[in-house]
Amino acid sequence: MNTTYARPLLRLLEALEKLPGIGPRSAERMAFYLLRASREEARHLAQAIADVKDRLRFCEVCFNLSEASRCPVCQDAARDPSVLCVVEEPKDVLAIEKTGTYRGLYHVLLGAIAPLDGIGPELLKIDELTARLSDGAIQEVILATDADKEGETTAAYLSKLLRPTGVKLTRLASGIPVGSHLEYADQATLARALEGRREFS
Predict the structure, then answer these.
(1) Using CA atoms, how far apart are residues 3 and 177, in angstroms rounded to an integer?
(2) CA-CA to 104 of 20 to 30 Å: which in 61, 82, 87, 113?
(3) What is the mean pLDDT of residues 15-28?
(4) Sign of the C-alpha dihedral, residues 157, 155, 180, 111?
């Protein structure tokens, strides 16, 4: 880091570099953009960040992000309550919603099983998932975890856990490359993967 920078700029650069995917050069570009921006634009960005931290919570039903106790999807009476799509993170809900083809409900695990990182099933929202299946209203569970090692491990664990319930278990069809994350799939590919989902074996 350039020690000739003023201390407030150094603090901003250090803060920006902590963001995922932001290296020193990207941090500098962002910092100098903010320096050139109007005070109002900078305050607007700061307020947006504060609002995200202060006003968002996890939906009490599906654990998607929400301003209210229930997210807009869970409040939507037009959604199909018999189909539940299980994803790892709230950003995956956004990716699927962008396709405009899925009209069921969601369950967000808030992570994936990763033993090497010390993340076991007990740290995910799996107990809450099984509780949602207890009344028999859900007929199909789509396992839409990522196509990487952790996502496949999580899908296999959930399949073994949920199979005795008799619910239909499906997995996204091919088209999502192995090792990839839902958030990076284009809308057309993700829509085809949803429409062509297969039963989980």
Answers:
(1) 43
(2) 113
(3) 94
(4) negative
